[in-house]
Design goal:
heterodimer; A: 5-stranded antiparallel beta sheet; 4-stranded antiparallel beta sheet; 5 helices; B: alpha+beta; Glutaredoxin; 8-stranded mixed beta sheet; 38% helix; globular
Chain lengths: 195, 176
């Protein structure tokens, strides 16, 4: 009887994880950390991007070194958000303006494309660079049918090395759902060479 | 409790456990291919140049099904789906179905270099100032629309797809 009770207890673990589970680990090749949240119909992944990677990406697309560094050191992750519902399932809607980064007692909003673009215009960043920037970030707002997804960078407006919790919010069939991924670590920056 | 009853319970429990463990895999693998757009809004017309300097106007394709893909060379899922788009185009082009891939914000040299690794034969159009993508309901790359012969947006896919999937090809062909 105890065996049966134990197995039934085990049986309920996947049910709980279907309601949502967050996992973390590191890429065996790069050593960079990742965080993943998965629940019924949704998968969200964050992969650390080293500031140097991000600097190189944007400098290759027309950003000057200062502007590229401003963004690269704002806690940037490569992100992936998917509607994993089966065919015929519900659509998933999200707006990054609803997401929160909680560090200590402070809660701040994500830095979205709409926050960054005016900065680049003010700094006279060229059109081609601004276009590349706009489309390389995760869309601020999107509605996914089952099977839809986006990749894109997300910026958390935190100094390198900061640890914080991320509360993600999404809407499905008129219901607002949320989850928190704990202890996300902004990628550390390498010392910059002084000329 | 008798041994046979315990065995039965154990079997049922293990069966349920297996079902739950494999459920996420099944769900992820059975996502739909293309999202039908019930309102079928009119596709915004555009006139863009391809890498050979040929101009393509969407309205000139009226009467044909057209797959319109928005992409960039630096976008991982865009790169990933390109070979399957080429395979799909090889099957669909003889049937009169067109495919136009609109690159966002990059120059000809960048795209030429890209095609060395990802050779494709369908037209790659340049939307260097991003005016076309901004006039379409697109928020992320890649996004692909299937335009019906009447010039309406019939299907949408956000994110990459295996464009040579037979079920997906049948959905596109059914618009003819």
């Amino acid at each position: 009887m105890h065996v049966i009770t134990l197995l039934i207890g085990t049986l309920f673990i996947p049910t709980a994880s279907a309601a949502g589970s967050a996992t973390t680990g590191s890429d065996p090749e790069t050593g960079l950390a990742f965080w993943r949240y998965e629940a019924e119909g949704i998968l969200f992944e964050l992969n650390q991007r080293l500031p140097d990677q991000t600097r190189a990406f944007f400098q290759a697309r027309g950003f000057d070194a200062d502007a590229a560094s401003q963004f690269a050191t704002s806690c940037v992750f490569q992100s992936r958000l998917l509607n994993t519902a089966a065919a015929g399932g519900a659509s998933l809607h999200f707006n990054l303006n609803e997401w929160k980064i909680i560090s200590g007692n402070t809660s701040i909003s994500m830095a979205t494309t709409d926050d960054w673009m005016p900065r680049w215009e003010k700094q006279s960043i060229g059109q081609a660079a601004r276009i590349a920037f706009k489309w390389s970030l995760l869309p601020t707002e999107q509605t996914y049918a089952p099977g839809d997804y986006n990749w894109g960078m997300t910026s958390y407006d935190q100094p390198p090395g900061t640890r914080s919790n991320l509360t993600l919010v999404w809407h499905r069939e008129g219901r607002r759902e949320s989850a928190t991924i704990r202890n996300i670590e902004c990628p550390a920056d390498s010392p910059q060479e002084t000329p | 409790m008798s041994i046979p009853t315990m065995r039965r319970q154990l079997s049922v429990t293990l069966l349920m456990l297996c079902t739950l463990l494999f459920q996420p895999v099944q769900a992820a693998g059975s996502s739909q291919l293309l999202q039908a757009l019930p309102e079928q809004p009119k596709a915004g017309d555009f006139q863009l140049t391809d890498l050979d300097g040929t101009e393509h106007r969407l309205s000139n394709y009226r009467g044909r099904v057209v797959i319109v893909n928005f992409w960039a060379t630096w976008c991982p899922p865009c790169r990933e789906e390109m070979p399957s788009m080429q395979r799909a185009w090889e099957l669909l082009e003889p049937e009169g179905i067109a495919m136009l891939a609109i690159n966002i914000g990059e120059d000809e040299d960048t795209i030429f270099q890209f095609t060395a690794n990802f050779p494709v034969e369908f037209p790659l159009l340049l939307d260097q100032d991003s005016a076309t993508i901004q006039s379409w309901p697109v928020r992320g790359l890649p996004t692909t629309y299937v335009v019906d012969p009447q010039g309406r947006l019939a299907y949408r896919a956000i994110g990459g797809r295996a464009w040579d999937d037979p079920a997906l090809l049948d959905m596109v062909r059914a618009l003819k």
